[in-house]
Automatic annotation (TrEMBL):
Keywords: DNA-binding, Transcription, Transcription regulation. The keyword Magnesium does not apply. Residues 29-48 bind DNA. The keyword Signal does not apply. Residues 7-66 form the HTH tetR-type domain. This is TetR/AcrR family transcriptional regulator. Pfam families: TetR_C_31 (PF17940), TetR_N (PF00440).
């Protein structure tokens, strides 16, 4: 008896769509997705109901992976909340310096998905809420006087660094964002 180890059509569609939508944007064609995944059109509709369902699932999957990476980055930085928050910006610096970096998947999706009711928007909103909650927790631990506002400011810096990393990579946007993050974090008595 042999065990099947090859990914099935659903998994191949997800893998291919995650890669191609990042490299080419949300407007990548269905034919390119099907060809890349080596599946029939029927598989797309059976598993996802169509391209919108596939895009939404790719965003959901990517968000879960990226949220886990935020936690890993912060956990690897140790217990100090200030260090944990600044580690995020150090990690962004590494990410935007990579070959093939194309910007923030979630910002690109929000800009490309013209229908405001596209289910992908709910995924990107939830993703940002989860990241903001991670920041809020650390800022609260520091005793920041306005942790929710400061967390929103840090998320704005993250979004800006990721966008500028794709459009102006030679400006070292992560370092600039980190410097501004230090000022936001520095408002907490425990950050000094």
């Amino acid at each position: 008896m042999s065990t099947r180890t090859d990914p099935g059509p659903r998994q191949r569609l997800l893998d291919t769509a995650q890669e191609l939508t990042y490299r080419h944007g949300m407007g990548v064609g269905v034919d390119a997705l099907l060809k890349g995944a080596n599946v029939a059109r029927r598989s797309l509709y059976e598993h996802f109901g169509g391209k919108d369902g596939l895009i939404t699932e790719v965003l959901r999957r990517s968000a879960a992976e990226d949220e886990a990476r935020y936690r890993q980055t912060m956990d690897a930085a140790g217990p100090d909340p200030r260090t944990r928050l600044l580690a995020v910006f150090d990690r962004i610096g590494e990410i935007v310096a990579r070959d093939g970096y194309r910007g923030c998947r979630y910002l690109a999706a929000d800009l490309a998905l013209a229908d405001p009711d596209h289910p992908g928007h709910a995924v990107t909103r939830a993703y940002r809420e989860h990241v903001t909650a991670l920041f809020t927790t650390e800022l609260t631990r520091l005793g920041h006087p306005r942790p929710t506002t400061a967390a929103a400011q840090l998320l704005l810096l993250v979004d800006g660094a990721l966008a500028a990393g794709a459009t102006r990579p030679t400006t070292d946007p992560a370092a600039a964002a980190r410097e501004l993050a230090e000022q936001v974090i520095g408002q907490a008595p425990g950050a000094r």
